[in-house]
Amino acid sequence: MEFKDVLQHRHAERFFTDQQIAPATLQEIVTDAKQAPSWANAQPWQVVVATGKTLAEIKRGHLERSQRGVAGNTDMPVAHRSEWSAASRQNMATFNGELNRHLLAADAQATYGQSQDRLFNAAALVYLVLREPVNSWAIFDLGAFSQTLMLSATDRGIQSIPAYEIIRYPDALRKMFGLDQTSRFIMGIALGYRDRAVINDFRSSRVASSEFLTIRD
Predict the structure, then answer these.
(1) Torsion, CA 72, CA 45, CA 9, CA 21, rounded to 10
(2) Alpha-carbon distance 130 to 142, whole Å?
(3) pLDDT tens digit string along 50-90?
(4) Lowest-pLDDT choice from 80-89, 108-117, 137-146, 164-173
(5) For a tag on the chain, would you pick the N or C end, based on fewer CB atoms within 10 A?
(6) Nearest to 166 by CA among 41, 18, 61, 40
(7) Distance between CA 132 and CA 171 in Å, rounded?
(8) CA-CA distance, 192 to 79, in Å (whole number)?
(9) 3-78+117-203 belongs to which homologous superfamily?
């Protein structure tokens, strides 16, 4: 796939089919991602991928906690909207309005929460972990790694969504993977093949480049 096509096809899918991803393909995707730049070549990322029985157990536990209303306790604090700039808050409001209209028109409002509770029916969950001490530069590096990973997946016909929901219960994940408290779950990415669910037809808008770009000569 041409790189421009990869960029255009990368999309946050919110529900996947039951089709599995070959282990070799997952290995290739993660291997591609390690080409991302990092501060002084620190390469701070640690990656845990859940598939098969492990994934099924994670999904069961997550659904049970979510349905009981167990509060999330993520390792990286959630930023309240008041902590974002006015422009970002407006973009969030626009996104929420667009998504709500899309779901309302299709009478599919319930599917949003259901997809999150079921961790998007992902074929694989990729957990991006940093070992303490965690600093802002390491988080920046992990962002570059995650985008490279998602673009690599798209190039292979596999879609993705990075989501808070995936790392909502980090203590349960540490127990599952045998990790101690020095391993911090920063982000999770769901991978899978696109389902025909209505929620996957939604496309969020992007602001005009002129609103954020300055070029001076």
Answers:
(1) -80
(2) 8
(3) 999 999 999 999 999 999 999 999 999 999 999 999 999 99
(4) 108-117
(5) C
(6) 61
(7) 15
(8) 28
(9) NADH Oxidase (3.40.109.10)
Q: What mean pLDDT, rounded, does the chain reach?
A: 96
pLDDT in tens, 7-52: 999 999 999 999 999 999 999 999 999 999 999 999 999 999 999 9
Domain ranges of the chain: 3-78+117-203
Tokens of 64: 């049970």
Q: Which helix (H) or strand (E) holds 47?
A: strand 45-50
Interatomic CA distance for residues 210 and 36, integer angstroms:
27
With b meaning 16 or more CB within 10 Å and e meaning fewer, what string describes 152-185? bbbbbebbbbbbebbbbbbebbbebeebeeebbb
d(CA 120, CA 78): 20
Structure tokens at 85: 């700039």
Of 110, 113, 125, 13, the residue nearest 59 (C-alpha): 125
Amino acid in position 27:
Q
User: Please, where are the H alpha helices in the chain?
Assistant: 3-9, 23-33, 52-68, 86-105, 110-117, 136-155, 170-177
Tell me if residue 150 falls in helix, strand or coil: helix
